[in-house]
Amino acid sequence: MSGLAVLRAMLWLLLGAVGVMFASRAFGWVSSLMWYAYPADGLEGPLLTQAHLLWNGQQLYQPFELYRFVSAPYPPWHPLALGFADQFAAPHPFWSGRIVSLLSAVGVVMVAALITWRVSRSLLASFLAAALLFSFPPLALWATRIKPDMYALLWTALGLLFATLALAERTKNRKIRRTKNKEQRISEFRLGSLFSVLCSSFFVLCSSLCFALAFFTKQTALAAPLAAGLAFLLADLRAWRGDAQAGYRGRFPLRFRTILFGASYLGVIGLAWLLLDRWSAGQFTFHIWTQHRNALWTPQLLFKFVSLLGYTWPLMLLGLATLALAWRAPRAQIVACYLLIVPATLYGAGKTGANHNHLLETLLALAMAGGIMIGWAMRNLALRPVLASAVVGLFGLQMALAFSPPEWYGGELVRTGTPQRYIDFIKTVPGEVLADDPSLLYLADKPLRYDDPSGFGPVAHSGLWDQTGMIDDITQRRFGAIIIPIDVEAERIDPSGRWTPEMLAAIRTNYQVLYRDTEIIYIPK
Predict the structure, then answer these.
(1) How many angstroms separate the CA atoms of 232 and 323, rounded?
(2) Could you give the dihedral angle defined by the CA atoms of residues 186, 192, 193 and 195, in that order, rounded to the nearest 10 degrees?
(3) 479-484 and 511-516: which strand pairing?
(4) pLDDT digits 0-9 by tens, 133-145
(5) How confident is the model at residue 294 (pLDDT cuts 50, 70, 90)?
(6) Residue 91 in contact with residue 97, Cβ under 8 Å?
């Protein structure tokens, strides 16, 4: 056995063992969080309630009312899956909904590994890309929450896979034309070109459909289709400039594949949007677009979450190397374009109610880029030992850093306390309760007339929703209790923007503190 083969075997064993350790740690995180029978996110209860509305044949996208607020902030594809899963018996109320996210996360890891293998042709590379995804705390956190993020990421990853396959089909056909003699090229080109076009068109349509489903799961899932479209366009321009047989001379430099992708994606999105808007009497557009457009945004909140990516700097360097590699490796172009565009998704981390879910797409792109570069390094250890060793060193450093993710995640990955005391109290309160965490009301079987403070705060600030109904409810002391984390006697403004100054003033005038905890409980005066 040569020294190079021994080195590869040692890398397999070392990095493979580290990957298994990451998977084991992720399993511990996930199993603990899945069995946590309390809300891990304030929207878990509202999203279940909204899924029940949809499955019971009621309108999900309702006009904002004076004495009611149904946020419905996402498209209907996730509520449909959520409502289906919630039909089955489960250990606790959040279990079935979290299963949707968990299965989606497993699918994301598998598809990311498949894309990495398809580009790098290395099983080790695909395994390590999957291991890195397992190492990222946001993957475990959002795989165990009832939110649409992981479900949208699954369709995004599938769209990227089909786009990669579509791009590879065209490349394979070009190789046939270049490597055969003239007679062979003529006969094989006709059959190969027809088969390639059919396969490429099928993959393109599958990619468009998956990206459309991602969009109708979470409307911000736009980076991947833009990346795929950019990769197709760049491939067409490159062929138009450099390949005389491509049939582009004097013609518009777009292949049928690129036109089909753009037309099918926009066509599906546009048709489905029109149907949903007609079904909801225009409320779909209002909830999905207008409501979010008026959300508050702060650079402090953006920096708070984006800074959590700091420890992935070795992967960022490998991502830059992937961009250079893509120039000579067409199969890597989809991932490279995704790397270029995906940072734009971080903008959403600065909006009111945002969290580290906005890091997921960036982490997916970085993990695949790292895996692709390891695959390149394994093939070039003998040809380019310095560069290949540098890639392996950076990847190894990233895996070492992954053992100590930012401490900020610690309190969310390991849940030690429970809000059971609040739930017990809420059950004893006659009538309705108003809470900053509406999922507590869901567990206590209380109605959710105002189902999302992170939603109604911004639209009340902007004037899209008339808050006088809620203020009247508070003034007339219609709530048996109000549970929020704000001391209304000391604070006049909620920094998060969830509760308006008028709401806080009404609570201050008409309610008094019962006791203080992590939340403050107010009862009528």
Answers:
(1) 15
(2) 150
(3) unpaired
(4) 989 999 999 999 9
(5) low
(6) no
